[in-house]
Amino acid sequence: MTKLLPIIFYPCINLRKKSKKVVDINSKEIQQLILDMDKTMKEKDGLGLAAPQIGKNINMVVINTADGSIVLINPRIMRKSWKKELAEEGCLSLPEVYGLVNRHKKIKVAAFDRKGKKVKFAAEGIFARVIQHEVDHLRGVLFIDKAKEITKGKDKLNQLRNSDL
Ligand code: CO
Q1: Burial class (CB in 10 A: 0-12, 13-18, 19+), 108
Q2: Predicted TM-score (pTM) of this structure
Q3: What is the per-residue pLDDT across 71-83, written as a single tens digit (0 to 9) for each?
Q4: Measured in angstroms, how far is the CA atom of residue 101 from the centroid of ligand 1?
């Protein structure tokens, strides 16, 4: 059965840890986690969800695209365009907070898919942005670390910062 997973909020320490490589992609546990993360992302209307956000510090993200969701396991950004783009971002772990973040316009990504098959592809625009945001999560980096400006939810951000977790 697929279940909704509780999302971890900033400033929880799990969001700051470096994630570990996924070894056994075909294991029951990982396959179940993929389904559960996908359901959770869709239920919360997220563009993406990284495993640390549900308390698992492993290198796995799900991304919501117009053509359905994709899973990236042990993802690596191989190439980044020189050109960057500034746009507004949010994060399910920082509800109501938005900020302007500069991201590479185009990237090349290598990862494993949900079946453990190696994939390589190019991404640009919003797709490239979401991948960069989610891959940052795996290194303990949040969009607020990179934001040039917090555009919405400054008070909320302070509230979160000062909350006891
Ligand atoms: Co996020």
Answers
A1: middle
A2: 0.97
A3: 999 999 999 999 9
A4: 12
